[in-house]
Design goal:
15-stranded antiparallel sheet; 2 helices
Length: about 270
């Protein structure tokens, strides 16, 4: 997961209306070795219905902590790539991801990844989660698998074929591109606006990137809302809302619906 940002607590909702200024035309992802970002993730189950299934859920906000860092360079085939190490822990259940990136004038490209660690979501009891005909063991697993379709069982280096264009340069309004494509799922990204994000009194000028999910359809799924706020310091905020997730009992019968909300932001960062 490429997620680098700074501590925040509010966001000005108005668009700046500027899409060709130098700060956006020249906007690129921070890419220096030993740069690091500590971040916090908060997710919560909301809109649980009917009330009879509420006993299955911890309705408090679950808080996770992580650090992302560009740790070294390596060569894969003929490409010199930079390794982003991401460590994340939620209630004692940890995950470590290594992603291998190439920065070009036209975008940030992921060429490979390695994922290890335990499943992030033990909070399911005797229930399962179904969304667009896929079954998940936990709510957190839905968020995990949505981000570039990482598998939670990979212990060997996986080469992205084709490579994944995580960001496209320059950051111009309405520019869109393909992030991921398979027979079941297509994901596209698009620059949809510009905003000032306020972080404890500091304002960061951000390009807003919306992510659209197409599940065997020519139209995006309106129940899956995924937004990044991208500044020269990295992605300063990430918001995810997934609505109308089916809850199944251990025999596979639907017993209710929920929505999931996740917010991520960085608390400390250092760009070398």
């Amino acid at each position: 997961m490429i997620f680098l940002c700074v501590t925040f607590y509010s966001c000005e909702q108005n668009s700046t209306g500027v899409n060709n200024s130098e700060e956006y035309v020249n906007l690129k992802y921070p890419f220096t070795l030993n740069s690091f970002w500590y971040y916090t993730t908060k997710n919560v189950t909301v809109n649980i219905r009917p009330d009879s299934i509420k006993n299955y859920f911890n309705q408090d906000t679950l808080t996770g902590f992580g650090i992302s860092e560009f740790i070294s360079d390596t060569v894969i085939y003929t490409d010199t790539l930079r390794i982003l190490k991401n460590e994340f822990s939620l209630s004692g259940h940890s995950s470590v991801t290594y992603e291998y990136y190439l920065q070009t004038d036209s975008g940030l490209i992921r060429k490979a990844y390695l994922f290890s660690g335990s499943n992030l979501g033990p909070y399911r009891g005797d229930i399962m989660y179904e969304y667009n005909k896929k079954i998940f063991n936990s709510a957190e697993d839905i968020f995990l698998r949505a981000d570039l379709n990482l598998s939670n069982t990979d212990t060997l280096l996986t080469i992205d074929d084709p490579p994944v264009r995580v960001l496209k340069y320059p950051a111009e309004l309405n520019t869109d591109w393909s992030l991921f494509s398979s027979d079941y799922l297509k994901i596209r990204k698009k620059y949809t606006g510009f905003q000032n994000v306020s972080i404890f009194g500091n304002k960061f000028r951000c390009a807003v990137i919306s992510r659209y999910f197409y599940f065997n359809s020519s139209l995006p799924d309106n129940n899956y809302i995924f937004t990044d706020y991208f500044s020269k310091e990295g992605i300063v905020k990430r918001e995810i809302l997934i609505k109308d997730i089916s809850i199944l009992n251990k025999t596979g019968e639907q017993i209710g619906l929920i929505d999931l909300s996740e917010l991520s932001y960085v608390t400390i960062y250092n760009i070398r």
